[in-house]
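Anyone? Bumping this.
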Amino acid sequence: MSSVSRVLSEHPDVSPDMRDRVLAAVGELGYYPNVLAQGLRSQRTMSVGFAASNITNAVLAETAVGAEGELRRAGYGLLLTDAGGDPLQDVANIAMLGRRRVDGILLAHGDERHRRVNACLKQVDIPLVLIDRDPPRGVKIPSVGFDHRSGMRAAAEHLRLLGHRRVAMIVGGPRRAARERRAGVQDVFDRCEILEGDFSIEFGYRAAVELIGRRPRPTALVAGGNTLMHGALRALRDASLTLGADVSFVGCDDVAVAEFHQPQIALVRRRPREAGVRGAQLLIQILSEDGEPENVLLPTWFAAAASCAPPP
Amino acid sequence: MSSVSRVLSEHPDVSPDMRDRVLAAVGELGYYPNVLAQGLRSQRTMSVGFAASNITNAVLAETAVGAEGELRRAGYGLLLTDAGGDPLQDVANIAMLGRRRVDGILLAHGDERHRRVNACLKQVDIPLVLIDRDPPRGVKIPSVGFDHRSGMRAAAEHLRLLGHRRVAMIVGGPRRAARERRAGVQDVFDRCEILEGDFSIEFGYRAAVELIGRRPRPTALVAGGNTLMHGALRALRDASLTLGADVSFVGCDDVAVAEFHQPQIALVRRRPREAGVRGAQLLIQILSEDGEPENVLLPTWFAAAASCAPPP
DNA sequence: GAACCTCCTGGAAAGCTTTCCAGCCACCAC
DNA sequence: GTGGTGGCTGGAAAGCTTTCCAGGAGGTTC
């Protein structure tokens, strides 16, 4: 047994003869080590959790795929949990992953300001990597995030150059993506009208309905998230407003919702899969204790389109 | 130790006094059992695999979410793998899940005709449930699937009533969804022109380009899958054809791509999340050896829209 | 009072690895 | 020839449960 273990884990203290015999027997018997026993002994399960607030969002799904591939190549399994948007379920899922003894967790939780969630993050003793989320005050957790602010600033600058002065924005719940996007627009329009709610299609709809009802109406609308864009586009369609001509519009993310819109939607874009890959790499680095982990900031950029035009 | 185990697993042979003392100690120490040791002893890991051909597809993501919730409630963890569309990766993922000793696998593989995949399915000894896939010839595997044929037949009937006679169809790779959809259309149009390829946006595009180039041009196009629809819609947009007026169009699935199309897209719809839930239930039933498993067939239905109109 | 039974408890084994350690053999050097 | 060294090997412990089993305590019945 000892020698089998040594052969399979490539321990140097094995004679060539023994190695051959073991490998022959292993091949013949189809033996493969029991991961539970390995985990029990070595105190690592070679599995990591991906705790998503809502994997239905295409951006997060893409992120999960990126992470899964990278982790698989490194020998890790990915345990997926979905909170369906409920912060308390995020907490429950993290606890569940802890009980399952995952070696680490990639976390994209729903609410960065929730007390219970933050209390949980403070006391959890599993290595974490945040995916486009900021840690609670006074806590250091490595993260992979997007530079939403730059992309948004470029979008706002584009609107300003087109002549817009009354710009309204719809932003989501307490998350760094929302804060950054907001800051990006405010870098250019410091008096921008802002409606803040949660990252949902419904709020995107309601907010857009309200904003286009204001008099004078804002000449441009910025939706700070793909779900908010989704809702806002519904509202604009229901109001029979033509994008560009009646009101300019900027959305987020390269999601299918935007592709077939007429006219085409101007977007702040990014590569979500890369966040998954880099997050996995960061976690793997931490788990193998291979140097000090450094936060990663991935770019976003603005892609202009006909939905942005000079104000009427 | 024995008594702790008995208390926590609610074994009847425990005195009330002992139960109280154990629970008090457990509460004080924050003890919780080690799942690896439990799994090692009981030979079940309380985790199941979800082997997806491509989780980026919104329909499959939705299915995964449904399965995850149901499994979580039953105490199972979900190990996700994604093959990125590569059948050999499906095989590798199933093998990996086996090495990880999952109790069962929900399988939505990419290619029902692939020799290596089918060989793998024949000899795998983990309980499987297929998600909208048929087992290889001569193999019995429980499954949850959709009745694509009925929905498609209704769509075709709708086209026939509108007066269409030259109908063309784009279908995907070797999967039951493709066969069923094809059969549904052929139930009505037995001379339907069919292009068969893989379930990809690219093939949807190429196939649509070819079909609308034919003379005389088919008066209606049916895309048998959401990715194929995605590609076909790109082609129709590039060709500046107006749906309904120039050519009628039927797509599949309630995906975002369809929502903002002008005119609205007629669709064969279904509830993908339910497939995940029912698949999980079926697997749980099998794992608890609770009666004979029965295959599940979920409905699809046709939702007419302006993309279908009488032929020009 | 003895025999028997029920209820409960703690010890021990088993589930499968990995790793430490002791020991064996062979070889080298003196 | 002897002592020392290095390379390998196999035994044993540990990692944490669960479950079987033996046995003790206390009650009941004849």
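Late reply, but here is one note on the structure posted above: The interface with chain A takes residues 32, 34-37, 39-40, 45, 47, 50, 55-56, 58, 61-62, 64-65, 68-69, 72, 77-82, 84, 93, 96, 99-101, 230, 233-234, 237, 255-257, 259-262 of chain B (CB under 8 Å).
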